[in-house]
Write a structure and sequence with these properties.
The complex is a heterodimer. By secondary structure, chain A is α/β, with parallel strands linked by helices. Chain A contains six helices and 14 strands. In chain A, the strands form three sheets. Chain A has an eight-stranded mixed beta sheet. A four-stranded mixed beta sheet of chain A has the order 6-5-7-11, covered by helices on one side. The longest helix of chain A has 13 residues. The relative contact order of chain A is 0.18. By secondary structure, chain B is of the alpha/beta class. Chain B has ten helices and eleven strands. Chain B has an eight-stranded parallel barrel, surrounded by eight helices. In chain B, helix 1 runs parallel beside helix 2, helix 2 packs parallel to helix 3 and helix 8 packs across helix 10. The chains are: A alpha/beta, B alpha/beta. At the A-B interface, helix 1, strand 8, strand 10 and helix 6 of A face helix 2 and helix 3 of B.
């Protein structure tokens, strides 16, 4: 199995690469994890990962700047049904639009907009930064074996905006931070985490292994 | 619920941990990567490397340390010390740091914070605020920014400075009381609260931890989002777990997975 982590100049992919390698080897699934900006390798991959840090518009611009990348992703995921995982801004890019400073079109694979977090308690700090638990809204293969709820495992978040889906059926898990924050979305073969699995220790490695096993 | 973070900090010089970490059976107590792996296993919420390498030529060893740590530890890593340029930040992020802490460069040129945040995103720019109390006994509290390890006054008001760097795009403030650093008598709670209440971004309390109660005070009374400590963990006085149990016993939410 080959897993392509898309390199489009957004942040460091070193730890994501190593986390996928660790999860693949520890779970016994194995596989060839590559970091690439080559659309042909993305088109050929069995699984695709889109990371992303920083501002929404910058990430979109970076992705568009790689010739043929959005087309290759769309063909592999929407055409051939390859499993796809977006991480942080990579997850937010799945939405219809990003409303961070300017309105930026997303991929439109998960209906909804990416909006600023406005906690109902004004004393809460922004960014939402640190470890938080997940509230599971529906069963999903990506959360198999991962304890959720107030006493569950923790995921590492760092963000000031979040995806507000237009329909509840794409929301797999949320977290609480002065209101509900979308943590994990999925639709068909497409999934995305607002948190960073590559930085979420135990929960993160378990989720990555689940993604490698996932047969949507 | 978002948890309070407990962050061990390692001083790194020429690629080696200064003073060493003695709390676990490390093969090499001076290897930052081994220490990082031990803290990862112990349940630290993040890790902080402070590079105190004097010469620029030896910075390469830090990049190697950061890179090897990021390969082995799947937790957030902040690296600070001697960060002066956009290229310094880029190199650390590419090596595997999640956040980069900037100090003197931000004091000298506030706009550096804005440029860094615009380039790499607010989420990875930490501004280190080293402050000392300058008000007289009985007068209203006032703290100023000091550079050069607390030796050089700048005349800059610490609370105003924290607000300014927040507006420029800092994602977090690493606040160190230079009066308390190394004293083990506890954080400067009045300073911590003054800054934490004045800014909208998370504040990490640092400088002066000598007991687990000090950590409780830093969060509960100082309103910090995270507590940073060095020697209390390195020398085996307390484990990360004990710190978290203490915080939890005082009604503060912690992560124990």
């Amino acid at each position: 199995m080959s897993v392509a982590i898309i390199d489009y100049g957004s942040g460091n992919l070193h730890s994501a690469h190593k986390a996928f390698e660790r999860a693949a080897s520890e779970s016994g699934i194995g596989g060839d994890i590559i970091v690439t900006s080559d659309p042909e390798l993305v088109r050929a991959a069995d699984r695709i990962v889109l990371p992303g840090v920083g501002a929404y518009a910058d990430c979109r611009r970076g992705l568009d700047a790689v010739p043929g990348m959005v087309e290759a992703m769309t063909e592999a995921v929407q055409g051939k049904g390859r499993p796809f995982l977006g991480i942080c801004v990579g997850m937010q890019l799945l939405a219809d639009r990003g409303l961070e400073h300017v309105t930026t079109p997303g991929l439109g694979w998960i209906g909804g907009d990416v909006v600023e977090i406005v906690p109902d308690d004004p004393a809460l700090k922004i960014p939402h930064m640190g470890w938080n638990t997940l509230d599971q809204g529906q069963d999903h293969a990506l959360l198999a074996g991962i304890p959720t709820g107030a006493d569950g495992w923790h995921a590492y978040f760092v963000h000031s905006f979040h995806l507000q889906p237009s329909t509840r059926d794409t929301v797999v898990a949320t977290t609480q931070y002065g209101g509900e924050i979308t943590a994990l979305v999925a639709k068909g073969t497409v999934a995305g985490t607002q948190f960073h699995p590559e930085k979420s220790q135990k929960l993160g490695l378990a989720l990555i292994a689940n993604f490698l096993r996932w047969r949507p | 619920m978002l948890k309070v973070r407990v962050i061990p900090c390692l001083d790194v010089k020429d690629g080696r941990v200064v003073k060493g970490v003695q709390f676990v059976d490390l093969r090499d107590a001076g290897d930052p990567v081994e220490s990082a792996i031990a803290y990862d296993a112990a349940g630290a919420d993040e890790l902080c490397f402070l590079d105190i390498t004097a010469s620029h030529e030896n910075r390469g060893t830090l990049m190697d340390v950061v890179s090897r740590t990021a390969e082995a530890c799947f937790m957030p890593l902040t690296v600070g010390g001697g960060v002066r340029t956009i290229d310094d930040i880029r190199n650390l992020l590419l090596a595997g740091a999640d956040k980069v802490s900037i100090m003197t460069a931000a004091v000298n040129d506030r706009d550096f914070v804005r440029r860094a945040a615009e380039k790499f995103g607010t989420q990875c720019i930490v501004v280190a605020v080293d402050a000392k109390k300058v008000s007289n006994e009985g007068a209203p509290d006032r703290w100023e920014i000091f550079t050069h390890g607390g030796r050089k006054p700048t005349g800059i008001d610490a609370v105003q400075y924290a607000q300014e760097v927040t507006a420029l795009g800092a994602g977090e403030i690493l606040l160190t009381s230079m009066d308390r650093d190394g004293t083990k008598i506890g954080y400067d709670i009045a300073l911590t609260r003054a800054i934490a209440d004045a800014v909208s971004i998370p504040v990490i309390a640092s400088g002066g931890v000598g007991s687990l109660d000090h950590m409780v005070e830093g969060i509960r009374d100082g309103h910090a989002s995270a507590v940073l400590a060095a020697s209390i963990f390195h020398f085996g006085e307390h484990t990360i777990r004990e710190a978290k149990e203490k915080l939890r016993a005082n009604g503060l939410p912690v992560r124990i997975d």
